[in-house]
Amino acid sequence: AQKVTQAQTEISVVEKEDVTLDCVYETRDTTYYLFWYKQPPSGELVFLIRRNSFDEQNEISGRYSWNFQKSTSSFNFTITASQVVDSAVYFCALSPFAGGTSYGKLTFGQGTILTVHP
Amino acid sequence: EAGVTQFPSHSVIEKGQTVTLRCDPISGHDNLYWYRRVMGKEIKFLLHFVKESKQDESGMPNNRFLAERTGGTYSTLKVQPAELEDSGVYFCASSHRGSEQYFGPGTRLTVT
Q1: Which of helix, strand or coil describes residue A70?
Q2: What is the pLDDT of residue A102?
Q3: Partner residue facing B102 (CB), from A43, A47, A98
């Protein structure tokens, strides 16, 4: 069975602070995908990133960066110099790799509510 | 390119009534998924279509839920009869082959 844990239910920061959202996962699969999605107040889930399990290189995209550590089963997300527009619910998710009947099935964490104050 | 659309955005029904949710995936996406988030809990997988076939329906809670995807385009999710615990936000997502899933805005279902 797969499980994703986002221990931080809510985080509140002041604009320009850096913030890290934690994600820990459990899976018996040797290959898998990890994701982060953002849910702004409008409600839709916005795709941010997908990483596969055999690529542990950290990734940076503008103010966003992701730290994947297979040894600790973690896929943390850092926002540098946070802005009010970053306020949203952030979900970490896990899915099996290609193949098998459960291909594509996302297992989500509980979500972290991030509030960035001006 | 239009994103995933869902209709209605919000539905309020009484216990025992029937509700049908609709999802229009991104054009050309063979994979279509339904998920649900019950208040305060995580988003949970319901089922996965590949074209018109059900690939995985392991997340469907019970036989009051019926999903269809006739012709491999849009999909409907019918709840009959609705119960109080069915309240939540129902999300639809679509993907092309092995790509990431793109989500719709969700349908908020309230059963009173």
Answers
A1: helix
A2: 55
A3: A47
**Closest-CA distance of chain A to residue B70, Å:** 20
pLDDT tens sequence across B86-104: 999 999 999 987 788 999 9
Q: Flag whether residue A105 sits within 8 Å of chain B, measured between CB atoms.
A: yes
Residue position matching structure tokens 């107040």:
A41
Tokens of B46: 């319901």
In Å, how far is B86's CA from the nearest CA of chain A? 18
β-strand partners of A79: A19, A64
Residues of chain A numbered 35-64 and touching chain B (CB < 8 Å): 35, 37, 42-47, 50
What is the pLDDT, as a whole number, of residue B19? Answer: 98
A11-33: per-residue pLDDT in tens? 999 999 999 999 999 999 888 99
Cα separation, A114 vs A117, whole angstroms: 10
CB-nearest to B105 from A4, A44, A103 is A44
Nearest to B49 by CA among B28, B30, B35: B30
Q: What pLDDT digit, counting tens, does each position of A35-52 carry?
A: 999 999 988 899 999 888
Q: Judge: B45–A107 Cβ closer than 8 Å, yes or no.
A: yes
Find the angle CA(B30)-CA(B33)-CA(B35) to the nearest 5 degrees: 170
Question: Do B31 and A105 meet the contact criterion of CB atoms below 8 Å apart?
Answer: no
Q: CA-CA distance, B35 to A41, in Å (whole number)? A: 19
